[in-house]
Design brief:
The protein has about 550 residues and is of the alpha/beta class. Among the domains are: about 220 residues, ANL, N-terminal domain (Rossmann fold), CATH 3.40.50; about 100 residues, 2-Layer Sandwich (GMP Synthetase, Chain A, domain 3), CATH 3.30.300.30. The protein is about 30% helix and about 25% strand. It contains 16 helices and 25 strands. The strands form five sheets. Strands 2-1-11-10-12-13-14-15-16 form a nine-stranded mixed sheet, with helices on both faces. Strand 14 and strand 15 form a beta hairpin. It is globular. The structure holds adenosine-5'-diphosphate. Adenosine-5'-diphosphate (ADP) binds next to strand 14, strand 19 and strand 20.
């Protein structure tokens, strides 16, 4: 076969092109950050690009070579943004680490990635003092602040101040050109499923993901938006928002570590935020604050919620009471992270509100660039009928093909097994029914723990709910509902079980309810079902 070659330029898709575009075309657009210290820092994309170049020079002066990893323990803020660009831009690899992990896990991850430099926020100094001796590959520790903020005495070797590094450079650096398949950043999975594993993103995958994330049926952000990523920059690169925002040239607002309902609300209002993104848990805090104080949003229009199933009741409250459009999304660290988002198509506009809501509560349709299928235990592809469920497999331009430093490829015939169980309807709307290990298998039938949780949190007294599978002598496994009630609210076991009546088949109703003061959460805000399963492994069913 003789194919006719295309005759188009081939420019590598490099991350530096995003920030140079932002500096040139949206140079005066603001980036506002609430710092650890509590004050607001304001500058522009042009300034961010210049300081990123200075950082790149400083890192070279410290001896960093292309391919070296630069770790971060930092919240969402302008210096973290500069590290994103100042590292990747010259072929270094930005390795964001989650400061909320246990210290042992953090050192494990830093050592696994062999970070050469570790940059950290001021309020994480005590943590880094503890970790530093065990971080054997780190040659330089950099405090994200001024020299005056360095501690007079510290056990941290080679501690430098970020602002000193920047001040010593002139910014006279041209971003180099190299292969777009070069690694740009690394993010470790949060470890709800065993040892953390590193997903190594490339320049190409990151730039393509930025296009996909910004599309109208995706996050739908434009240069007129004011975007506040609540999702941390250490959690899958804040879902790619720092890259998409540069491509689009919108105003960015970073909340720092101040993620409680009041701080977020005040920042949303002060900076007139129009778009945000985060996991369901943070919206609970924000909603509690606005509801308790009778507040409204004056600019907030739309939010992407994902990372864990967003209960239909949360979507309803944000839309009906606050006029905020909710876009439910599904993704994973291994997918950079966006896979699917739920938005109505024109054919759905005639549906009843209830039917539309049911669709919007699903995890949604894939973005161009991602392909998905569901397969049964024998690997046979299942139909898209909204009924058949199976293991969800994906492939695409921003899906990993292997983990950092691991020889075993996780792929199955070229597809990445997500570990999620899903149905897909005829319109291509995917619904996650469970993670494969959270599924409840009762008398040979599967029960979706997510469906039971979503119903439970619709009860007015329930703040949070998690349903786990517990061994049962007759049925193999049965669902156990664990709940945290809202402050001051009361409900009995019987009230909560009766709430399921008429909403799902009787055999799916949980057998028992456990009331807890709080649910265990992972460092990224997800409920840790593994912990709950361990705690209630020997639960005695009251009725057999
Ligand atoms: P980890 O896999 O370590 O928890 P990730 O942040 O990559 O870290 O989590 C990805 C997983 O989170 C998905 O495989 C899925 O189980 C869950 N998840 C993400 N978004 C959603 C969603 N909208 N609904 C249900 N589950 C979700």
């Amino acid at each position: 076969m003789s194919l006719l070659p295309g005759q188009m330029m081939q420019l590598p898709l490099l991350i530096s092109s995003l920030i140079t575009h932002a500096a040139r075309h949206s140079g005066d657009t603001e980036i506002v950050s609430k710092r650890v210290e509590g004050d607001l820092h304001r500058y522009t994309w042009a300034k961010a690009e210049l300081r990123s170049r200075k950082l790149a020079q400083a890192l070279a002066r410290l001896g960093c070579q292309p391919g070296d990893r630069v770790g971060t323990l930092a919240w969402n803020g302008y210096r973290h943004l500069e590290i994103y660009y100042g590292t990747s831009g010259t072929g270094l690899v930005c390795h964001t680490v989650n400061p909320r992990l246990f210290p042992d896990q953090i050192t494990w991850i830093i050592n696994d990635a062999a970070d050469k430099v570790l940059c950290f926020d001021l309020n994480l100094l005590p943590l880094v003092e503890k970790l530093a001796p065990a971080c054997t590959t780190v040659k330089h520790f950099v405090l994200l602040g001024f020299r005056e903020q360095l501690p007079p005495e510290t056990a941290i070797p080679n501690l430098l101040a970020y602002e000193d590094l920047i001040a010593a450079e002139d910014g006279d650096l041209a971003w180099p050109t190299f292969d777009e398949n070069t690694a740009s950043s690394i993010c470790y999975t949060s470890g709800t499923t065993g040892d953390p594993k590193g997903a190594v993103y490339s320049h190409r995958s990151t730039v393509l993901h930025s296009f996909g994330a910004a599309l109208p049926d995706s996050m739908n952000i434009s240069s007129r938006d004011v975007v506040l990523p609540v999702v941390p920059m250490f959690h899958v690169n804040a879902w790619g928002i720092p890259y998409s925002a540069a491509m689009i040239g919108c105003k960015l607002v970073f909340p720092g570590p101040h993620l409680d309902g009041k701080s977020l609300y005040d920042l949303f209002e002060a900076e007139q935020v129009t778009f945000s993104a985060g996991v369901p848990t943070v919206w609970l805090g924000l909603l509690n604050h606005v509801q308790a104080n009778g507040l409204k949003f004056s600019s907030f229009k739309s939010t992407v919620i994902g990372g864990a199933a967003c209960p239909a009741s949360m979507i309803q409250t944000l839309e009906d009471d606050f006029n905020v459009e909710v876009v439910h999304a599904w993704g994973m660290t291994e997918l950079s992270p966006l896979g699917t988002l739920s938005r109505l198509r024109s054919k759905h506009l005639g549906l009843s509100k209830a039917e539309q809501r049911a669709l919007l509560a699903k995890q949604g349709k894939v973005i161009y660039g991602i392909d998905m299928q569901i397969v049964n235990a024998d690997g046979q592809v299942q139909p898209w009928d909204g009924e058949a469920s199976g293991d969800l497999l994906v492939r695409g331009h921003w899906v990993i093909n292997s983990y950092f430093g691991k020889a075993n490829a996780p792929l199955r015939d070229g597809w990445f097994p997500t570990g999620d169980v899903a149905t897909i309807d005829a319109d291509g709307f995917m619904l996650i029914t469970d993670r494969s290990k959270d599924v409840i298998k009762s008398g040979g039938e599967w029960i979706s723990s997510i469906a039971l949780e979503n119903l439970a949190v619709a009860h007015p007294a329930v703040h949070q709910a998690a349903v786990i599978s517990v061994a049962h002598p007759q049925w193999g496994e049965r669902p156990l509902l664990t709940v945290v009630l809202k402050p001051g609210a009361t409900a009995t076991r019987e009230d909560l079980l009766a709430f399921y009546e008429g909403k799902i088949p009787r055999w799916q109703v949980p057998n028992d309810v456990i009331f807890l003061p709080e649910l265990p959460h992972t460092a990224t805000g997800k409920i840790q079902k593994l912990k709950l399963r361990e705690a209630f492994r020997n639960h005695q069913w009251s009725e057999l």
